[in-house]
Structures are given as structure tokens and as C-alpha cells.
Amino acid sequence: MKLKIITLLIASGVLVAACDQPLETKTDASKPAVADRYDRTTVALHRLEQGKALFQKNCAACHGSDAQGAGDWRQRDKDGKYPPPPLDGTAHTWHHPKKALMYTIKNGTAAIGGTMPAWKEKLSDDEIESIILWFQAKWPDKLFQAWVKRDQESRKRTR
Fold first, then answer.
1. Contact 126, 15 (CB under 8 A)
2. Phi, psi of 49 (to 5 degrees)
């Protein structure tokens, strides 16, 4: 668990540092460099807290308060639809690269016969990333490392 939190904190720091504009190194001798104005650990912890709050507000009604999903998520309901899967690492979410997770949350699953609503009008990309960081923090370390590898491979293929 400790390794996973450290990995998430580093990944969040990379996300923050991966802006389109490079960080300034020095702007004015009287002001600290942009990179020195915040602690990446604090930023990552804030994003995890934000992700939890956003998940509770927007996702927990379907996916469960602890991202446990519906107990019978593998069985179609009376309408022929699958119930919300767990996002806590006990289902298939880790098989999907970040780009696919972002797309699904933004656009919902109606186009593929699901019931998840689209969140693109309600949640920003940063908020969606915070939600993903939060539920990924629940994944076992080995599973999270496998996801990181899959995600990196996916990025290489889409370049």
C-alpha cells in the first residue's frame, strides 16, 4: 500500500509537471521559481482527497461508496445491461489505459449499451483524473504496476 501511494504521488507530480508550457526555472531574483512554489506531495494528496469527494458525490450511487461496484456486476440485469463494475481493483478496470478510462467517464456507456451517464458537462478533465487516482489507490500494488505497464504500452501505440 505504501509503495502504491508513493507511486501515485510521483505520478501525480509528473501530471502536474507535464503541462504544455515548461516550468520556469527563474523569473525574478526576488521570486522563487514556479517549480519551487509548491510541494508535489501536497498536490498529490489534495488530488486524492478531491478524487474521493468527487467520487462520493458523483459515482458512489452506482459504483458503491468504496468503489466496490454491484455484487452481481458480471450478470446482465432484467434490461439486459450489466450493473456497474467494481473500480477497486477486483474487476476489469485496470485493463483499460487512462485514455479509455477518461473517455468512458466523459462519454458514458450509452453508445455501447450501458447505463453510465456522460460526465463531460459536469466534471473537468482534472476532476476526472482525480477520481481515477482515488480509485486506483485502492488497487493492489501488483495490479497497479501492471496497469502502468499497459498504459505506457498504449501510449506508445497511439503516438
1. no
2. -65, -45
